[in-house]
Structure formats: structure tokens, C-alpha cells
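Board notes (copied after class):
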Amino acid sequence: MGGRRTSPCPSSEPVAYAAAVNRSAILQFLVRFTRLQIGLFVFSFSIALMLEAHIGLDPWSSFHDGVTKHSSMSFGRISQVTGLGLIVVSALFLNVRPGLGTIFNMIVIGPWIDLLRVQPWLPVAPGGIEGTFQMVGGMLLMGMATGLYIGANFGAGPRDGFILGLTDRFKKSLRVTRVAVELTVLSSAWLLGGALGWGTLIFALGMGPIMQTSLRWMRVQPPLRKTTPTD
């Protein structure tokens, strides 16, 4: 009689498969996390460029700029505090759960802006045509950065999460809610003496199409909820 033929341990294949799946999941997480951080850095750089264009700012940046005129805090720190406040309000009253991207957006963008603005290589425009070109360049970079960090699928930023939460709560369209919020922020910025000007209009007219084109080009789906009205 021949000896009994041995077979490999039946539990070894599932264990090896689980290990491979874990390695793949870790690698995917690291790739997404790196994409998130690159996106947030480029986003910060775009804001720094627009700040130094000196032709006016978007509503949120103008609000932060206005608050700095009545506070000892820097632009970046005001951005952090505002982001934290919006995260708390969204979580407590609008049932918006912050993602990892939401938290890192609040933590890193402000310090990056402050650091970039003191670099000697950052272009500083005197306004006018030169400032307009710098503003548009910053907007293009912001569109690309938004596609990068939203495409990492770690959640929307504090301001976008707040707007999405209001959209769901009041059952209005995203467009109507965003306009209402940004008009409120813009009014507050004006009262605080924030930087408003030609660049504010350029941002209002151009940022939406730039962001939409960037998300489509990068094949990124905006983080909209299923219950959000579309018109």
C-alpha cells in the first residue's frame, strides 16, 4: 500500500488571501491619504496666491481677512477657527459626520497659508492686470486641488459639509443654499472690512465652472447626498 498523500493546510490559503487583502487596503489608504495631503497643500497655495493678487477675495477668504482686522490672530488661524466652528455646528445641528478629509482640511490649510505667504518666492502682485492674472491662476489651481482632495474620498471640507447639511435640512437646492450662505458671508466680510473687489466678482463668476470642469476632468463625483435636491 502506498503512503497517504498529504495536502496543503486548508487554512493557509484564506490566511494568505486575508493578508494580501490587508496589504492592498493599506496601500490604497496611503495612496488616497497622499492625494488628500497634496490636494490640501495645492488648495492652500491657491488661496495664498489669490490673497497676494490684491484685487479682492472670495467670500470666505474675505470674511477671514475682515476678522483679522479686528483680532490678533493670523488669516490661517482664523480659517482654522471658522472651520472648527462649522464642523461642530454641522455635527450637532445638521447631522453631518465629519470625515478624515474634513478634519485635515480644518487643521492644515490655515497653517499652510500662513507659511506660504511669508515665502520670498511667492509672487506678490500690485493689483490691476497682473493681479487679475494671478487671481485666475489661483482659481485654476484651486479647481485642480479640489478635484485632488475630494477624489481621495475622505469627505468634504467644513464649509462644503455645512452647505450640504443646510441643503438637506431645509430641502432646498444646493445652488440656492450655496448662494444664500455665500451672500451672508460676503455681507459679514463687507461689515468687517474684508478685501472685496474685482477679484470677488471674478471668483463668483468663474469658480463654479472651473471646479465643475476640474471634477469632470479628474472623474471625481462631488460628495452630494442622495436626498439633495438638484434644482
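Comment from the instructor: Helices lie at 12-51, 59-68, 75-93, 100-117, 128-151, 158-170, 174-192, 198-217. Confidence is low (pLDDT under 50) at residues 226-231.
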